[in-house]
Amino acid sequence: MGEKRQFKVWRGDETGGDLQDYQVEVNEGEVVLDIIHRLQATEAPDLACRWNCKAGKCGSCSMEINGMPRLGCMTRMSTFSEDETITVTPLRTFPVIRDLVTDVSFNYEKARETPAFAPPADLAPGEYRMQQIDVERSQEFRKCIECFLCQNTCHVVRDHDENKKAFSGPRTFIRAAELDMHPLDAREDRKTYAQQHQGLGYCNITKCCSEVCPEHIKITDNAIIPMKERVVDRKYDPLVWLGSKIFRRHPDDDQLVQSGSSHAVSAGPAMTGVDLPDAHERTEEQEVERGVNWHRRVGPAQLPAVGANGRLGVSEAAFDRSGAASPFGDDVEFPMPPRDLNYAHPDQD
Amino acid sequence: MTERIERHHYDVVVIGAGGAGLRAAIEARLAGKRVAIISKSLFGKAHTVMAEGGAAAAMGNANSRDNWQVHFRDTMRGGKFLNNFRMAELHAKEAPQRIWELETYGALFDRTPDGKISQRNFGGHEYPRLAHVGDRTGLELIRTLQQKIVSLQQEDKREFGDYDARIRVFAETTITELLLDGDRIAGAFGYYRESGDFLLFQAPAVVLATGGVGRSYKVTSNSWEYTGDGHALALRAGATLINMEFLQFHPTGMVWPPSVKGILVTESVRGDGGVLKNSEGKRFMFEYVPDVFRKQYAETEEEADRWYTDPDNNRRPPELLPRDEVARAINNEVKEGRGTPAGGIYLDIASRRSAEYIQKRLPSMYHQFKELADVDITKEPMEIGPTCHYVMGGVEVEPDSGAAMGHVQGLFAAGEVSGGMHGSNRLGGNSLSDLLVFGKRAGEFAASYVDSMEKRPTVPAADVEAAVDTALAPLARETGENPYKLQQDLQAVMGDLVGIIRRKGELEDALTRLAELRVRVANVGATGGRRYNPGWHLALDLRNMLVVSECTAKAALEREESRGGHTREDFPAMSAKWRTVNLVCSLDGDKVRLEHKPLPKIRPELVGLFDRGELSKYLTEEELAEFDTSATEGASK
């Protein structure tokens, strides 16, 4: 009935593995997940792969197909040419368990840290009144099927495991935005929470997450950017925020340690402006303590390598090396020393 | 060899993390119990996400005349009076409260102009009644409950310093056995899908919320998880199943291409001009018009085609016959060898209507098939056939508490895995509200069962060893049969012989073949190791699918009438005598035993909600006489 097509599927576990070649029958109208199922039913019964609904509604069968993060059930075979080899690999950002299955617990941990909906104290069940136009903004984000493709593609954590602690990722940002825009949510600090505890500031709006979203949620435009704008409104100083985020957060506490707390206080009189050591000898903490000279001129932010379309590549498949480009520039390591933090105001030049 | 087994102690173990399971877990946790939630998939991926229509609840937001009595009446009508009346009553009464509660968990339903929850019309419901969020209500429900669980975990973190202190989710974990101490539930045994390591839960109460059985069918809208685990676990623990012969099929689901297999094709395709053709290209429905419908339906293609534009002077095309007639006709064409290679028939609208017209009238159908399968319904016919999507039957439960009947204590069931609520046929929208109402009740009563107990049951060590051996057996059989092949064969038997239209001979044949499969399933093998090995997982699921299929086939053979989700070609009419009977399945050793049990008698004030004319369609002469007596008594008082 169908014809044989060439596949490469990554097989292995956390100790390593490689791409294996398969010749699989492909019929008209099939999707990549159908081919995985055919492999399981024929030559690879133990091929591990998650799936559930097979209709693009549950977000289980996330994988990377020819380097693109996609849902296996929503990727039609007809989108590939007949002589094309199709390479299927597990999500890169999360640790491999086996074959195409990865450990996505990172996403659940971040979700669990995000403060839940706070019901209004004065309304009983059945008394909630909201207008359609008001709920629609949050409803867009509640379309999320938690496929975690946005988390997987985000450059802040893709190939940067070290950022996972401080950065919660696009999925969590839309949750924060959803609650922020919820007409009856009783908490007022959703935005501050997003900046202080979720690492919203790490996002530099490359929109890769929006691009891979199978639900077409405008993650960047409708959630992240509005949240960022308000952040700037309120705190108005992303630099101080990022510095304090990286260096001043007490590990077991959700509260930000204010400048001049424990360490600084114990340092006592030494921490006055005059007595500060020379710029080159200052510690990073002292540097932050000094605040920022808003009048210095800084160069424009260093841009990461972009593809021909002027955007960051969605995956390393498009690049000539293994790791994806960092959105902060390739030579930057996190946490950054504060003296290297630049903020070029768009109106500067 | 000694196996390392991870041990956990909980008050309540909830098996299944769909709507019913999560709601039960929330309730048990709110009652102060320590709760484990077992999810076969990742947290939040349950089949509940597939529900599109909405959750039925008589809130009266769209029409103030709606109330629980009307909802009760609709549910009983839908189930053709075979429903457990008490469950239908509780469901109708409590559904609104359960929906409003979701809003306090953060759910965002679509709104009416005055800011209340919007309610939409749906087949079988007298008033607009379905609370909804576009066409993704199931997702909203699961996400809301998932997030409520997270919020309870956050409370526990503040109180105890540990998110998992009182409620813990075991994702990608499968339970293979329930463990008993005498006739009391003592725990549950299973494995982590990820690592293949075993776990043992010691718990006095278990809530089953494992969903349905659709994976035993060739064409189904259900996901791989729907292997009847809860049904089989309950049977093996000594509980009983009822109504297993009642499965909901849709006559026109896609059968090909595989990427859209099981997806339902709305009936409006036929209403808008689509016709059914067999592999010879013949429009066959004209041969299937039963005598009773002869007067209303066209006899020639010319007349039928004129109906679309001039319905007053022409009779309807036979493609618009009632669902079961269409299903029977399709079934017959396929069985007589005029089906498509994939076992369906063609639904053709492409050659009859312009592309423009189709796109305008059926936009979501057009886009769905275009996007999922690259099938252009304006250019080519669709291949369709009967699709399995819900099982009405399930664990026989005590209506108020959800406690399983039979001889087991401490076992509860809610949602699709439980039986009785929907009778012989479920109304659209009643499933999501069923999850919430009975999920809550099961959690609540499981918690109070734990409170009432004086001494905790203990898990017999020998049973744990036996469970380990059973679970490891397929991996040890090097020459065992391929589980995927066995599943295909089982699906073929069920799809072909115990499908939408049933006949005595075929059902008997099915039982013979299931007996053969039983021998083969006992010899299933799995290659590879224990780490995330889907072949091994399927091998373990097969015995559940098999025993549940046996129940369905046996009950279908026994029930000699057609009602709701059970259609017998040799007994096409509904029988008042059979309405008074529930078919109850239990396990006798490893054999399925079937018994007749009278239906609970509906309370007079609930019977009084119907008029006599309607009741006479369902009730026996005796029951009607009783109704008349009580009506005159009521009048004379």
Automatic annotation (TrEMBL), chain A:
Keywords, alphabetical: 2Fe-2S, 4Fe-4S, Iron, Iron-sulfur, Metal-binding, Oxidoreductase
Q: Name the segments for region: Disordered.
A: 322-349
InterPro entries hit by this protein: 2Fe-2S_ferredoxin-like_sf, 2Fe-2S_ferredoxin-type, 2Fe2S_fd_BS, 4Fe4S_Fe-S-bd, Beta-grasp_dom_sf, Helical_ferredxn, SDH/FRD_Iron-Sulfur, Succ_DH/fum_Rdtase_Fe-S
Q: Which cofactor does it need?
A: [2Fe-2S] cluster; [3Fe-4S] cluster; [4Fe-4S] cluster
Provide the GO MF annotations for this entry: 2 iron, 2 sulfur cluster binding; 4 iron, 4 sulfur cluster binding; electron transfer activity; metal ion binding; oxidoreductase activity
GO cellular component annotations of the record: plasma membrane
Pathway participation = Carbohydrate metabolism; tricarboxylic acid cycle
UniProt superkingdom = Bacteria
A Gene Ontology annotation in the biological process aspect, one of them, is: respiratory electron transport chain
All copies of domain 2Fe-2S ferredoxin-type, residue ranges: 5-92
Q: Which PANTHER family match?
A: SUCCINATE DEHYDROGENASE [UBIQUINONE] IRON-SULFUR SUBUNIT, MITOCHONDRIAL, SUCCINATE DEHYDROGENASE IRON-SULFUR PROTEIN
**Protein's name in the database:** Succinate dehydrogenase / fumarate reductase iron-sulfur subunit
TrEMBL record, chain B:
Q: Where is the active site?
A: 323
The residue ranges of the Fumarate reductase/succinate dehydrogenase flavoprotein-like C-terminal domain are: 488-599
Which residues make up the binding site for FAD? 16-21, 39-54, 229, 416, 431-432
Q: Which cofactor does it need?
A: FAD
Q: Which residues bind substrate?
A: 250, 266, 389, 426
Keywords from the named record: FAD, Flavoprotein, Oxidoreductase
List residues of the FAD-dependent oxidoreductase 2 FAD-binding domain. 11-432
Pfam family example for this protein? Succ_DH_flav_C
Q: Which InterPro entries match?
A: FAD-dep_OxRdtase_2_FAD-bd, FAD/NAD-bd_sf, Fum_R/Succ_DH_flav-like_C_sf, Fum_Rdtase/Succ_DH_flav-like_C, SdhA/FrdA/AprA, Succ_DH/fumarate_Rdtase_cat_sf
GO terms (molecular function) for this protein are: steroid dehydrogenase activity, acting on the CH-CH group of donors
The name this protein carries in UniProt is Succinate dehydrogenase / fumarate reductase flavoprotein subunit
Q: Which organism is it from?
A: Asanoa ishikariensis
